[in-house]
Design brief:
Layout (H helix, E strand, L loop, with lengths): L8 H5 L57 E4 L2 E4 L7 H12 L17 H12 L2 H17 L15 H29 L1 H20 L4 H29 L5 H22 L5 H20 L5 H6 L3 H11 L6 H11 L16 H16 L2 H14 L6 H22 L5 H28 L8 H22 L2 H9 L5 H53 L2 E2 L18 E2 L6
Parallel strand pairs: 3-4
Antiparallel strand pairs: 1-2
Helix pairs in contact: 2-12, 3-8, 4-7, 4-8, 4-9, 5-6, 5-7, 5-19, 6-7, 6-9, 8-15, 13-18, 13-19, 14-15, 14-17, 15-17, 16-17, 16-18, 16-19, 18-19
Length: 577
């Protein structure tokens, strides 16, 4: 919405705080602005505003028409920006003045930002490129299924795999993934987001060609290593890029979409297993990555990266490509410039002021996410279904778990930008507590039963349903939300390094818990394993509630009865870049 002509940029810039109207003037559509506070009573709402969103648009005078709020977060301090501002330097100075301020800064008028059609194209190909990651993970199981029927390769040679070679192939995939995640943080911040995505697709194309033309185990090993490198490189570069070009109000959904596409890639691979030989599946995936690479060539570069490289004119042109014609790109550009210093960020920047608080929060959340059993359910959920004795076929069990994971992402897609990231995460952890307690009780009863309860139909059905609910719940929050928060917590100048650290530690912790699972199960039993996961998930609820700051435009307001359970701990407004 456009502001009236009589409101000049100087007038708007001078509005630092809105004065609430008198009680007689207030209406349900005209509520005083309420700033977040660190006091214990910060969650209380005046009687007149109950049932309304926490942050409402307030008018300074009857003729002032406000536009949609777009926000900027400067670590623990918050500042808004004006939709009528055209003097970008003044906006930048206003942002910088609040960086070192200990008091909550004021809110000014709104910054009008909307996406253009180019942004939709960016999102489409960035999300669809993640299909290759899921296909890479599922390729080896699909290959093993087909080798039981035919060992002939594309070049008419014989391919055989023994158990030790299968384990080595998995290790090579993991090694390539970790190496890529460690190196890509530096590479993405050096050569740029778009060039990094193009390079990642080239590696992915090479890996699929090697898979398709593999004639022996050695070449297959090379393909698995390249698949790990391309997966890590593509994951970090696309996440960083998409975070910097998508409008704030859609970022949660877009980041969830990336996870959905990875799961979808695995589902498609198992579906194609019924129709095509494994080498044709590899060719098909390679062809798709060629399409993505061509699309990436024509995509705009991240404006934030160009500003960090001191290419302001080019950054403005790229920003105009991904924003609508009536968006205030000049003001947005100056805000991005203010929040990202020109000096080059290093990995040590993540542990210096003011980023260290965000780094510690993310690492704590990552520990809780991994040790509440999320990787076990995602990676070994099919094995857990087979252990129930229900008579599953392996591929059927895998596809069923993948579908539950996909449906969890689909629900998160609908909720993440509506009720906040923290509520989704806490809801997921709460369900995991109940599910793991129930699985532990069933395992305890089964192991201590005098009669054979392993094939007791009600017990088996209950365990199957609980495992599927757990798979659905993991992607509803405990696995997916930490990634969203990690992408949003770090500003553009250190985002590649921050995501590199986050993804690398995440992969290593997931590998650790997978190797610790047999040891824990042997020591405490299967029931003890589930109860440990339940305890960690229970602690994660409190950690999320009191330590994790949400980044949300409008935080869902609970009734007064629930205030003692849920602490509204959030940034207002959300970071712009």
């Amino acid at each position: 919405m456009n502001l009236p002509h009589q409101l000049t940029p100087v007038t708007l810039l001078s509005v630092s705080k809105f004065q609430p109207k008198t009680e007689e003037q207030a209406t349900t559509r005209d509520v005083p602005e309420m700033l977040p506070s660190n006091d214990k009573d910060s969650t209380e709402v005046p009687e007149k505003t109950q049932g309304q969103p926490v942050f409402q648009h307030a008018e300074r005078e009857p003729s002032l028409v406000t536009s949609i709020r777009r926000e900027v977060d400067v670590e623990n301090n918050v500042v808004g920006t004006s939709s009528g501002v055209t003097a970008g330097d003044s906006v930048a100075a206003n942002v910088r003045d609040n960086v070192n301020s200990d008091s909550p800064p004021s809110l000014s008028e709104d910054l009008h930002i909307e996406e253009s059609g180019t942004t939709a194209v960016v999102f489409t190909f960035a999300a669809l490129s993640q299909v290759s990651i899921g296909a890479s993970v599922a390729f080896l199981p699909v290959l093993l299924l087909q080798l039981t029927r035919s060992t002939t390769t594309f070049l008419n040679t014989e391919l055989h795999l023994i158990h030790s070679q299968i384990v080595l192939a998995d290790c090579l995939l993991l090694a390539g993934l970790v190496i890529a995640l460690v190196a890509s943080g530096w590479l993405v911040s050096t050569i740029g987001r778009r060039c990094s995505m193009i390079a990642a697709t080239l590696v992915s194309i090479a890996s699929w060609l090697v898979h398709a033309l593999a004639t022996d185990v050695t070449i297959l090993f090379l393909g698995r290593f390249l698949a790990g490198v391309s997966a890590g490189f593509l994951k970090l570069s696309v996440t960083t890029y998409i975070m910097e070009v998508i409008v704030v109000s859609n970022r949660g959904r877009v980041l969830v979409c990336l996870e959905m596409m990875k799961i979808f890639g695995s589902i498609i691979s198992y579906g194609l297993n019924l129709l095509l030989p494994w080498y044709h599946i590899a060719f098909l995936n390679g062809t798709w990555m060629v399409v993505c690479m061509i699309a990436f060539i024509f995509l705009p570069e991240s404006p934030a990266f160009l500003l960090i490289k001191q290419k302001e004119e080019k950054a403005l042109k790229e920003l105009q490509r991904i924003r609508s014609s009536d968006s205030k790109v000049d003001a947005e550009l100056q805000i991005i410039k203010s929040l990202n210093p020109e000096e080059r960020a290093k990995c040590t920047s993540l542990f210096g002021k003011p980023v260290i608080s965000n780094t510690i929060t993310i690492l704590g959340l990552l520990l809780l996410s991994v040790f509440c059993g999320s990787p076990i359910i995602m990676i070994r959920g099919a094995d857990m279904l087979l252990y129930t004795g229900f008579g599953w076929r392996m591929e059927a069990a895998v596809v069923l778990v993948l579908i539950c994971l996909f449906l969890g992402c689909l629900l998160l897609f609908c909720l993440v930008d509506e009720i906040s990231r923290r509520l989704c995460l806490m809801m997921s952890l709460a369900i995991l507590v109940v599910v793991n307690i129930a699985l532990g009780v069933i395992s305890y009863i089964t192991s201590h039963s005098i009669t054979d309860a392993t094939h007791d139909t009600p017990m088996v059905l209950a365990r199957v349903c609980l495992i599927l609910v757990a798979a659905f719940t993991v992607t509803l929050g405990s696995h997916t939300v930490p990634t969203i928060l990690a992408a949003e917590y770090f500003h553009a100048y250190c985002r590649p390094q921050g995501l590199s650290m986050f993804f690398t530690i995440s992969v290593l912790l997931q590998t650790l818990i997978l190797y610790l699972q047999p040891l824990i199960e042997e020591t405490f039993g299967l029931a003890g394993l589930h109860w440990i996961f339940a305890i960690v998930a229970f602690l994660g609820i409190f950690y999320t509630n009191y330590c994790v700051r949400d980044i949300k435009y409008r935080t869902h307001k609970l009734s007064n009865i629930c205030h003692w359970l849920y602490k509204e701990n959030f940034y207002e407004p959300r970071p712009l870049i």
